[in-house]
Design goal:
Largest interface: A-B, 91 and 92 residues
Number of domains of chain A: 3
Strand order of the largest sheet of chain A: 2-1-3-4-6-5
Low-confidence stretches of chain A: none
Oligomer: homodimer
Distance between the termini of chain A: 82 Å
Largest sheet of chain A: 6 strands, parallel
Shape of chain A: globular
CATH class of the largest domain in chain A: Alpha Beta
């Protein structure tokens, strides 16, 4: 079918190329200037279109989907402020290495800076936050230009999943007619069937992207250090989306076992949960998760191998900073993601292959040099941590001393074996990191830990949920401020057909500020930091047609189980006093530390 | 009082300097890194702090206030995606020339690009959308650095209201302690009383900003052209905030009267409403507002004098494009804001002084050369326009043929003599421009016509409302998509204590797309363009504690009057069928055109 005009040809060719390259989904916000793109996406059989009304939420929805799949999701908006509304999600995609393909429609060149309506400067709009920026030339139905368009589209998609995956921005100027209105002579018949493609399936340019691995001799320093280590430690930080598919946690565990090294597995690392975790009490495995409580009371590790982003646990970050250790940092992009500036060796390679190479090279038969007590001590501390947590979760105790961490513990403990959990920034992710025990279950745990904003939380979660099989539950745990911040994102439940169990930890404001010294300064503490709002979220749930239940901390597990077994989306709101929760966290941490110290000193 | 540490000194000095320079209000979103700024603003007696939870809404609220006052409003956020959430408002402020001072807290230099949490690249975050970008150096309690800080603060404020007013971005890195925690020796006693100011009131550097006026001989071409014109036309486009204070519409009318020229006054020009408008039937004045209907059927003007931004009326823009006329464009910034590229003369000077100069130079006694019929024809067409509109508003007619424009007509007609009206983009502003009759009332009419987005509408309106005397009503007219888009902005009603009458024209989706050719293409019209959402806004109103009433088009005036007389905030939702409204608009336009044509041809 010959395109009725050049704008339509342009949109169709671009979308044809992107889908040939494997693009499966696009989030579109309505607009006029983007009509050629919208129409082309809507008519293409191989791409799922998610329609959003708020571009900020659209951006985060696309981010969430790309985060869950590891593959690019596209975004389309019209010209003007619409494009600026994508900026927060683009920023997060940059920091968190999430492949995102941003297509912003623009007005033709001559209208820029002319005072024309809805015309702003979209050139390099997201600055250095994108891996690649390109501006499409004006649509024209010539072989050369269409070839250029296909090449640009193929490249854009490849750049989102390059050595350092991330966002790519294509700015797309169009002139009228934008609709598929027939304009005789605008497009020759030759473009009818081929859209100037190669007449075969697959992309115009097939990108084969190599993996960054170490040469033989590049392992030497690492192997030698580990073989001599007395207190080796593996730290698995929050995973990049690519790690979740290219890194087999079982390989990490086997390397750890060969070294008698513990693995400090961040709740977002992809290593804390999975079949590789010891199915027993979860604490005889080398994979541990309670270190936030006890890392201060362990002896320093002497060799650290770290991969993933900066760990969620601040005590761990500080321990790594203060340790007198040789620290190897494995990063596929080699971008020096190391904010304590204590790493001694940077290995610019993919962690998956590096661990496979290590397993081959570490002598399976040899005695490990690791101090006998090192791993045993860590595991003993780990057992203390979970025992104390379990005591705190007992119904009687919880009734007297409710705290937000108890909800995170239950959320992870009661969820079925296969599930995706999205945890908001601020306190929920910290509580998950502290109170979610390693488990032999296929849990995909996600958060926006790139820039760690509290914006776009619901949308990111629902975007991740849009990629799940129908029988895999999606759970979102959020604080009240984050829930309010992306209240518009809830529209996706209905519009995009994604169900979730949404747990709102409602402490009426910014509970995290109770952790900071500003708590002591009143005013302005309550009015400018804690910022209580008194919002009753039941009305918000009603606006979006969601079931709403207010539950007590002790009644949470039952309500949560019910929701997991139910269809539809339920919002479970649990009220807490932020200050009391914060005190309880500190108490529990002190209890673990006391126990660890008394064992150590005995 | 000596500052307890350098971060506190830095925050206090910056805020002290900004308030000395006249800054009266700041919008703050809670965050940790911004603590020194937040604390300093909160403790300063001369500045009003508006606390917001969503940075996007905060940005638009500040924009609205600055738009209404013409003076800078400041914005404060923490590091990370928070700053990106300001981007849409910054973009609008750029395009609409609104003074906005954006203060983004940042982490210290060494943490940038280190993988540290909540650390992103904020350097020149808004690209060329700001008039000035500067990064503060690290806080240090030395005379020279503090002098630099004061100079930077004074300059930042001055740049927001320079030759082309607009946004300014100061990126502000801080290191811990961020709170006013005492750190002995960090700040010497000398900074206690003075904060290194000059020990006198007023800013550290007093900026005296000249006005751009024309030299004597620079009037020659303009005066000569006008004195010879047969069909002179003055076009008052949407006003910059500065125009609303520096341009006296009475002077424009007096010039027009001397020339027998009509003034095509955009509803946003500051010229359509005011004491200068003839108090009679509003159509014997030279100020006319119905030209959208009849401009196509007038003879071409031969000399056009235009000021303000590009007119809202598309028929007017096209008529100017197609006219064989000498077109003078008066723009204080001289930025060639002229998207039809037909202007022949650009006068880079402030419109106010130019019209005063014209009035002096146009010979008061001389016969005007204007064609006798020119003004009379325009005024006759104008009378037709309003007569036909009035017929359409008659209750019986309206009952049979309701249309959105009727609401806009009533909104402007029934509002008290002094009021501020904020009108959303998309259809409401177009309907206001068509159906709001010139009136001798002190109406301040505002919209976000810089980039013309439908984001941030409620926040911008409430921000404008925050600057009003308590007895001046604030009215917001919005479509349903815009109402949903900035639903978070409604929190400001309670948190910032601003009341409004909020009129929601609910046609369940993007009614404007019925105006476009895409309407003919189904699919994807309904799903991707019209995007019906079925949201029941009553729940949204309830979430924010607002009164809600669903009214019929014929019952609107009564409900509107009640709301204007009441305290508190009322949401009046009026349901429409977008397609029917669009057809009705077209019908009315055709009726006026037929009437004008039949008179002309008679």
């Amino acid at each position: 079918m010959t395109a009725p005009n050049r704008a339509t040809l342009w949109g169709r060719t671009l979308v044809d190329e992107l889908t040939a390259g494997g693009l499966e989904a696009v989030c579109i916000a309505p607009g006029s200037r983007s009509t050629p793109l919208t129409v082309a996406f809507a008519e293409h059989p191989d791409v799922t279109v998610f329609s959003h009304l708020d571009e900020r939420s659209a951006g985060f929805f696309a981010l969430g989907r790309a985060r869950r799949t590891g593959e690019a999701t596209a975004l389309v908006c019209t010209s003007g402020t619409a494009a600026a509304n994508f900026h927060p999600a683009v920023m997060e995609a940059d920091q968190a290495r999430v492949p995102l393909l941003v297509l912003t429609a623009d007005r033709p060149h001559e209208l820029r800076d002319s005072g024309a309506n809805q015309t702003v400067d979209q050139v390099k709009l997201y600055g250095d936050a994108v891996r690649w920026y390109a501006e499409l030339p004006e649509p024209e139905a010539t072989e050369r230009k269409v070839r250029n368009l296909r090449t640009t589209a193929a490249r854009a998609l490849a750049e989102t999943v390059g050595v350092e995956p991330g966002p790519v921005h294509l700015n797309c100027p169009f002139r009228k007619p934008l609709e598929p209105t027939c304009r005789p002579g605008d497009v020759s018949e030759a473009f009818g069937d081929t859209l100037a493609g190669r007449g075969r399936s697959g992309p115009f340019v097939e990108t084969t992207s190599g993996t960054r691995t170490l040469e033989n001799e590049q392992y030497d320093a690492l192997v030698e250090a580990l073989e001599r280590a007395e207190r080796p430690l593996i730290v698995a930080g929050p995973a990049d989306p690519a790690d979740l598919t290219t890194l087999d946690p079982d390989t990490v565990v086997r390397v750890a076992d060969r070294l008698d090294a513990p693995v400090f597995a961040d709740s977002l690392s992809g290593v804390r949960f999975g079949a590789h975790v010891d199915a027993g009490d979860g604490a005889s495995s080398s994979v541990v998760g309670g270190y936030d409580s006890y890392v201060d009371d362990l002896p320093d590790p002497d060799v650290v191998v770290r991969f993933g982003a900066s760990p969620t646990s601040k005590p761990l970050r500080h321990a790594l900073r203060d340790a007198d250790a040789r620290q190897f940092l494995i990063d596929p992009a080699g971008t020096w993601r190391e904010a304590t500036f204590t790493a001694t060796d940077l290995l610019a390679a993919s962690p998956g292959p590096v661990f496979e190479g290590l397993l081959e090279r570490l002598d399976a038969g040899a005695e490990t040099t690791a101090n006998d007590e090192w791993l045993a001590n860590v595991q003993a501390a780990e057992r203390r941590h979970w025992a104390i947590r379990d005591d705190a979760l007992a119904v009687d105790t919880l009734e007297d001393e409710p705290f937000e961490g108890a909800i995170l513990a239950s959320v992870f403990e009661c969820v079925p074996e296969t599930a995706t959990l999205f945890v908001s920034n601020s306190m929920p992710i910290r509580d998950a990191d502290r109170f979610a025990r390693p488990r032999a279950a296929d849990l995909t745990v996600l958060a926006n830990r790139g820039a760690s904003g509290i914006d776009g939380i619901a949308s990111t979660a629902l975007g991740a949920g849009s990629a799940l099989d129908t029988d895999e539950p999606l759970v979102l745990v959020t604080g009240d401020l984050a829930f309010y911040h992306d209240s518009n994102g809830l529209l996706a439940v209905d519009r995009c057909g994604v169900d979730a169990t949404i747990v709102v930890l409602d402490n009426d404001g910014g509970g995290i500020f109770h952790k900071l010294p500003i708590e002591e300064f009143e005013p302005p503490f309550t009015e400018q930091f804690k910022t209580p709002h008194g919002l009753e979220f039941e009305a918000l749930a009603e606006l979006h047609g969601l079931e709403f239940e207010r539950v007590d901390p002790t009644g949470f597990e039952a309500a949560y189980q019910r929701s997991l077994e139910q269809a539809g989306t339920q919002v479970l709101a649990v009220e807490f006093d932020a200050e009391a929760s914060h005190r309880r966290r500190e108490e529990l941490r002190e209890q673990v530390r006391d126990a660890v110290r008394s064992t150590r000193d005995a």
